[in-house]
Every structure is written in structure tokens, then in C-alpha cells.
Amino acid sequence: MKKHLWVWLFICLGIQTTTAQDPGYRLLNEKNVIQNRNFYLFTLLEQLPAVNRLLQQDTAMQRINIIFQQRLQSATALQGLLLDKPTIARLAAYWPQLLQQHPAVMEELLKHMRASGFFQLYAAEPDTAILARAWKDAASGVNYIINAYTTNKGFRYPKIDSAAFYVSGPAYQQAMGQLLKSTRHKDRHSTFFFQPALHAAIGLLLLNKHDECARYEPLEKDNREAYTKAKTTDWNKYTYTALLIPGAGPGNNDPISDAGKSRCRIGAELYRKGSAPFIIVSGGHVHPYGTPYAEAVEMKKYMVNELKIPADVIMIDPYARHTTTNVRNAVRIAWKSGMPLQKRMLCVSDALQTYYVASSTFTKRCQDELGYMPAADLQQADLYYLSFLPDIKSLQANAMDPLDP
Predict the structure, then answer these.
(1) Residue of 344, 341, 323 lying closest to 332 (CA atoms)
(2) Number of C-beta neighbours around residue 186 at 10 A
(3) For the ranges 35-44, 154-163, 367-376, which has the lowest average pLDDT?
(4) 138, containing H or E segment
(5) pTM for the full model?
(6) Which DSSP symbol is given to 261?
(7) Which three-class secondary structure state does DSSP give residue 280?
């Protein structure tokens, strides 16, 4: 009796589990990369057997499933699949109830959530808060994609994230109709109420050729040589763990811009001086719109082929689309590769960008768009580089930026 009382008190007080983020954690259902990177909570709900059974047997979830099945069958447009605000609010309050009623099952879910790092922004909060906030993030992310790619409005970054077609045109309208039809067929017996909206959102990204977040997964494959070398690196020999070189997209169809080459040359000089044992080149498929070139991939080619930097010291981040995510993604790579996060990293770029990163404007933009600052204690030592301490909150997945969550 006493044991059960303590368990009940543990859950009601919302005390968090001790599981920490794990660089060696293996994601479940890795074949659905877009879903995993944007909506890992949904993957866990689907793939963890005990959690799956619990949600299928729960009477409240069954009632919600019936309502959303009716919506699916009666929807005349993809926007009819949106997750409505009352349901989002209701579920935000209901997840903590499930934790209280089924602690063993829900703790398994929370263990995976914490180990993945995708919910790191909420790591210091009670388990009840993590569940509620993760659910709100996922639901809002699905709705963002459906609204944005059915109307071509409301994009955070319209110049590089917008729909690939004229959304009011008959061809796109027909394509969306086919997507609704296929979603209705696929999810006519869906287990979870959120699946039709989730599948429609992923379908819209694929329809618009916005699969950027999945193109290089698993990223460890491209960075294997450098990650292996990092395991045996004596970090005490170096002032910095890595040199971060942000990309600069060309305004034409060239693979790499002159600005990108210039930044690479500055980085190569610092590497040869022994400032850091590794280089992280960062930049995705950004400029011009629809470019087939990822800035990071092209910068690595340039550094290896033209500047003669060893390939096994260069790590690529082929996802970042902004300076904010250049820094954030570099921290993720540092964590994944085993670099000590208590040591400083060096951001190498042109004078204008380093000044921007060191400014309060950049800090505010990070807070507005990411919800945190991915770098701490920024110190600008030169026109062309500044140092910072990585922040582990950078592991947090951002469902409101589906091309680079």
C-alpha cells in the first residue's frame, strides 16, 4: 500500500524522470524521416507497443478517434483535417491524467522523449509539462504545414519555404484533392485521430518538393569519418572544439558563392594554425529557391579539393537555412559527435555576419524563432570570428520550421 502511495505522489507532483539525452539513441521508425524529425512524439505514440495499446483502449481517445474519423470522411478540403483548438487544449490537459493513471507505460514514453533530445527545451520541467508542451508543439506544427501549403500564406520564411506551385491553379487544386482522397483511403481505419492530419501534412511537403529535412539522413553516414576521429581526439590540445563556417547562398545557379569560398579560406587558415581539430560547414538548400545544391556539401568539396583540408576533419550540416540554425545545428553536431560542450566553439565568417551574431538583434531573433539562444557567452575576438559556448537546448526539434526542424 505504501509503495503505491509513493508512486501516486511521484506522479502527482510531476517529478521528472532521470533519463537524459543520449547521443547514441536510435530513433524508432527511421524509414519515415520527415515524421521523425518533425513529429517524433507521434512516432513514439505509434511505435511503442504498450503506449499504442493504452491509447487504443482508452475510452476518451476512442471518442476523439470517432469524431475525427467522421471529419475525415466528410472533409471536402485538406483544411478540414486540421487539429482544432478545443481538441488541442483538451489533450494538453489529458496527457498528465494518463501519466497519473498509467505511470509505467507513460514513463516508457517519457524515457524515449528525454533520450532523443527532441524535447530538450522542456527537460528541466516536470513530466506532466513535457507531455503537454510536446503535444501542443506537434499539433501546431501539423496545422502550420496544412495551412501554409494549402494557401501559400503564413510562412515564417516565405522566400525560401513557400509552395512550389500556384496554389489557386487547377493543377495544384487537383493534386490536393488527390491527396485528400488518398489520405481518406489510407486512414479510414486509422488507430489515432491525429494520423489523417499528420499524413496530409507530410504529403503536402512532398507535393511541394520540400523534403529537405530528410535528404541527408542519417547524417552520421556523411560525417562518419569525422565522428570516428572525434572519439580519439585529445581536446585538451585545442582552444576550440570546432570551427563553424556558415554558408552563403549564391544568387545564381552556381554551386557555391564567392562569399562562401571566402569564409572557407578564413576557416582553412585557422584550422592550419591549430585553432580547432574539426570544421563544421553549415548550410542547406536555400538560395536561389529550389536550388539542387546544399551549401555545406559544396563548401566541403571546395575545402577538400581546392584548399586541401583533410576530408575526415570536416563535418557537414546540410540543413541550416538561417544564421540562427547555423549555430543551433552546429551545437547538435558537436553533441552527436562527442565534442565536450563545456569547451568553446569558433564561428568563422565575414565581418558583417560575425557582427550580426554578436548583436542583440541576433539574440532576439533566436528567442523569437527558436525559443532560446543556442550559444552562450559570445565573445568576438576578431572581425572574422567569434567564440561561444554551445547550449544543449539546441537539440530541441522545431515543428514550426518543417524544412529544418
Answers:
(1) 341
(2) 15
(3) 154-163
(4) helix 127-151
(5) 0.93
(6) H
(7) strand
